[in-house]
Amino acid sequence: MRESSPMNAGDGTYSYTKNSTVQRDGASGVKDAIKEALMENFDIEKMLGGSTIFTIADLGCSVGPNTVSAMESLLETVEHKCRQQGLEDLEFQVLFNDQIGNDFNTLFAALPQPRSYFSAAVPGSFYSRLFPCSSVHMAYSSFAIHWLSKVPEELQRKDSPAWNAGRIHYSDDSPEAVLEAYTNQFQRDMEAFFGARAQEIAPGGVMVMVVPGVPDGVVTYSGGVAFRFLEFILSDMVKEGVIEQEQVDLFNIPNVYPCVKDLRRLVERNGCFEIVKMEFGEVVVGKVEPENGIMLIRAVFEGCMANHFGAVVINQLFVRAMQHKLQFAAILNSAGIQGTAISQIMVVLKRI
User: pLDDT tens digits, residue range 204-235?
Assistant: First the structure.
């Protein structure tokens, strides 16, 4: 399975651009809390040390317009703080990072004209170094670090106790070995992530993250029932001979939904960041109808699934998903999910 799987490109019917309002509302729901944390804990004058260039990096920016509104909000806060500290004549640059295959053309077409900042694309994995040492003053990442750098290898070996046959993710009833494989991969990835950011973010700089997550002690993410829905459709396609069972057995969604306790432990293990704010919450995103939910799933996971099963098969899968949208609604209702809120963790860290 090829690991690179950006969100659906362009601005068409199935694009991330048209089907990411849940992620937008999730990030917007903590905007005021982020602003408050930054205003109280961010000393721009001390951090810049005489420099007149302020750099923000969005890690996992995707195609917009969510990143555009997020950067505008952060810049508004920074400019407010600058006025408060009597700083003038600063220039701002925003560095948009995502995988090499990301649709940067659609992103840059969405940038406001004119705008108050310089901009550039920085393609590459955020699990490795992306920027020069101490060159970033504020890093931001929203709905991105729950994507693993790769599917845990243990899930792809038939002789492994973590062989996840018939399933495409983990849940409360998953074997311990499956949960451990996902947990260990997330830990390795986060160690790499925080290690790279510790080198790139200037002392006194900050990192802001919005991460889909779960309460402490909980395993299954509320939106994870969508994976069970996809498993049901894949099972039917196997029975009809459209795909082989082994193809399903070898496929696993490379996502982990952490809790505050897990993230806190990984930040503290790195030792380079002070935790300014880290809290779990439910953010209201408005009613998401089953049809819109399926479109969201397609915009996010189609690339990942098409890399494994092929584009034709996955197009058929989502056609079937729409045909079974009432069953999807029943699955959501039985899980107590009304499609009106999203579970996430808001994090503000300060580089020591």
Answer: 999 999 999 999 999 999 888 899 999 999 99
> What integer is the mean pLDDT of 179-204?
98
Nearest to 305 by CA among 290, 292, 289, 316: 316
pLDDT digits (tens, 9 = 90+) for 56-114: 999 999 998 999 999 999 999 999 999 999 999 999 999 999 999 999 999 999 999 99
How big is the CA angle at 169 (ends 291 and 293), to the nearest 5 degrees? Answer: 10
Q: How many C-beta neighbours within 10 Å does residue 166 have?
A: 12
Dmax (CA) for the chain in angstroms is 69
The per-residue pLDDT for 288 is 86
DSSP, collapsed to helix, strand or coil, labels residue 5 as: coil
List, in order, residues 6 or more apart from 76 with CB less than 8 Å away: none
77: left (phi over 0), alpha (psi -120 to 50) or beta: alpha
The values of phi and psi at residue 104, to 5°, are -70, -25
CA distance 41 to 33: 12
- Average pLDDT of 334-340? 78
DSSP class of 135: -
Q: Which position has the token pair 């079974």?
A: 324
Structure letter (DSSP) for residue 155? G
Identify whether the C-beta of residue 277 lies closer than 8 Å to the C-beta of residue 347: yes
Report d(CA 7, CA 101) in Å as an integer.
9
CA 48 to centroid of chain Cα atoms? 29
The helix (H) or strand (E) run that includes residue 317 is helix 311-323
Domain residues of the chain, as ranges?
Answer: 21-221+254-287+342-351
Confidence class for position 286, pLDDT limits 50, 70, 90: confident
CA–CA separation, 162 and 180 (whole Å): 8
For the domain made up of 21-221+254-287+342-351, the CATH class stated in words is alpha beta
